[in-house]
Amino acid sequence: MQVHDKVFRPFIDAKTIQARVAELGKQIDKDYEGKRPLFIAILNGSFVFASDLFRHITIDAEISFIKLASYKGTSSTGNVITSIGMEEAVTGRHVVLLEDIIDTGKTLHAFLPEIVHRQPASLKIATFLSKPDALQYEVKADYVGFEVPNKFVLGYGLDYDGLGRNIPELYELAE
Ligand code: IMP
Ligand code: MG
Question: Distance between CA 58 and CA 72 in Å, rounded?
Fold first, then answer.
């Protein structure tokens, strides 16, 4: 399949993805019994994963969406990441962050302090994908759909330059 200038080939089929996401959802459903968790999905990439996972939650639960924006910090700390749309009260809540993929870990590493600062009762991370070989920052996901090799992937919410998010299965870059 061609997207923009690159060729992608099938990697994980839709049935396998659905089965795994159902498994994760049911696990979280069990782990958070009686805790009324607040899911916070990080846009844009996680919206497909979040939508599928959330429908496997049967306990009382809330979901909210945020967008992360990075800008150059004025000091030597480099890029600063802030969230847009986090009006939901996080203090005292059991928060589960939903991500599409942890690649280098840079995004979450920079953003986590902002959440921690608001003093949730607990904080866990659920990510659809992780690329352990690409990790450069200390970020540990508590729930991982699939560990994938350090290759560019596309589909199920993940894009290549804006395209491909609507593909129900996962593709990888063919080289
Ligand atoms: P980070 O390197 O962990 O900060 O990853 C940041 C973001 O890069 C992810 O949330 C994705 O939106 C994007 N990203 C990383 N790897 C891929 C990939 O293989 N395909 C599509 N997007 C990716
Ligand atoms: Mg993303």
Answer: 41
Strands 122-130 and 94-102 come out as parallel
**Ion ligand 2: residues, Cβ under 5 Å:** 45, 100
Ligand 1 near 152 CB (within 6 A) = yes
Instruction: Say what the pLDDT of residue 71 is.
Output: 64
CA of 41 to the centre of ligand 2 (A): 10
Q: Where are the beta strands (DSSP E) in the chain?
A: 2-3, 6-12, 38-43, 62-72, 79-84, 94-102, 122-130, 143-147, 153-154, 170-173
Task: State the chain's mean pLDDT as an integer.
Answer: 93
Pairing of strands 62-72, 6-12: unpaired
Q: How far is the CA of 101 from the centre of ligand 2 (A)?
A: 7
Specify the pLDDT at position 76: 47
Tell me the CA–centroid distance for residue 70 and ligand 2, in Å. 12
Q: Is the CB of 47 under 6 A from ligand 1?
A: no
The domains found in the chain, sorted by start residue, are: 2-70+81-173 (3.40.50.2020)
Distance (Å, whole) CA 36 – CA 64:
13
For 4-13, what is each residue's pLDDT tens digit? Answer: 999 999 999 9
